[in-house]
């Protein structure tokens, strides 16, 4: 009935995955700015407390670094959009649904894709979508299940990362505020000492709010997908092509945002997320 899980392993589709992986990795290179911001947030306030004569210089440096950090966001956004477009080409050709030229604009040209693909040296991209989306399913149902995998996978990962960020921010700033109060440091001096950590605060708050917004959007779309699957389970009415395209529009839009989960955090959850995805698809299929 469908060939999605077979076609996904064809050379053309593997090339797409390699190119998007490199594009996203190039985007994540800019996460070095996040790391530097974290290190600065830990070290510079301590230096300022121990060497009070350097406080003003450290504050000025913190503000300058924040400007550099915000400029890097522009380059991060461009590489993110490139990766999202390539992944959109993978999905639309695999699902055999139309390309939304209004939303996605032009595709990434072949030369750029080839250049990106050559940089990926690992063979670990087989079975991108769960094999539980078997060939016996109608194409529209197989498509919407794959789309559901995209939402479910990202939703779980982003919830975990948001919790991690919030806890990290609370521990960090809670510690310094407690320490400054204990040492009876004035509010103005407290602000000066914390100024070098401003880019870290921006990173934590910006990512937390952005990812929470994405989580809400994903949960809303996920509920719509489940409604369509329930309808199919009850009376075998398949979702229309226009619905599949609208769901894909949401997927693409959220892939273009620069707030990405770090690779190390992604790796920690990869195996458990894959097993969870297989279990969910199996459960859904039992209703058909």
- Tell me the β content: under 5%
Into how many domains do the coordinates divide? 1
Number of helices: 11
Distance between the termini: 15 Å
User: Which residues sit in consecutive blocks of at least 5 with pLDDT less than 50?
Assistant: none
Structural classification: mainly alpha
Helical percent range? over 70%
> What's the total number of strands?
0
- Averaged pLDDT, please? 84
Radius of gyration: 23 Å
What is the 3D form? elongated
Q: Which H/E pattern describes the elements?
A: HHHHHHHHHHH
Main beta-sheet annotation? none
Keywords:
288 residues; 11 helices; mainly alpha; 0% strand
3D structure, described in words:
The chain has eleven helices and no strands. The protein has 288 residues and is an all-alpha fold. It has one domain (4-285). Helix 2 (11-29) runs antiparallel to helix 4 (55-95) and helix 3 packs antiparallel against helix 4. The two termini are 15 Å apart.
Please describe the topology of this protein.
Blueprint: H1 4-7, H2 11-29, H3 31-50, H4 55-95, H5 101-104, H6 110-117, H7 139-182, H8 187-194, H9 198-235, H10 241-255, H11 263-285
Report a brief summary of the structure.
The protein is mostly helical and 288 residues long.
